[in-house]
Write a structure and sequence with these properties.
Thiamine-binding protein domain-containing protein; 101 residues; four-stranded antiparallel sheet; Thiamine_BP; 29% strand; alpha+beta; Alpha-Beta Plaits; single chain; MTH1187/YkoF-like
Length: 101
């Protein structure tokens, strides 16, 4: 299972505010059967890598559909194959180490 961080930034817009673009992008993600977490700076998505990349492609198009003249999309992929990984598992691992210290 992959964990992917994606940031989609519309450029060439009339305003510096992007929250309405973020909301529209998330409407696309909500239709998918993927676990995700919205953060203040990006979105984390968990699932099959092919499924995630397909939805990221759809998400990338949303700002263009809403009038952006340019879109910058950054993707970081954590694809661990030696054991099952999840967003929750990664956080638990760090929290356990914080308690021990």
């Amino acid at each position: 299972m992959a964990i992917v961080e994606v940031t989609i930034t519309p450029l060439g817009t009339a305003t510096t505010s992007v929250s309405h673009y973020v909301a529209e992008v998330h409407k696309v993600l909500e239709k998918e059967n993927l676990k995700y977490q919205l953060t203040p700076m990006s979105t984390i998505i968990e699932g099959d890598l092919d499924d995630i990349l397909a939805v990221v492609r759809k998400m990338h198009e949303v700002p263009f559909e809403r009038g952006a003249l340019r879109v910058s999309t950054s993707i970081r992929i954590d694809d661990r194959r030696d054991k099952k990984a999840s967003m929750e598992q990664k956080l638990k691992s760090v929290r356990a180490k914080l308690i021990k210290e």
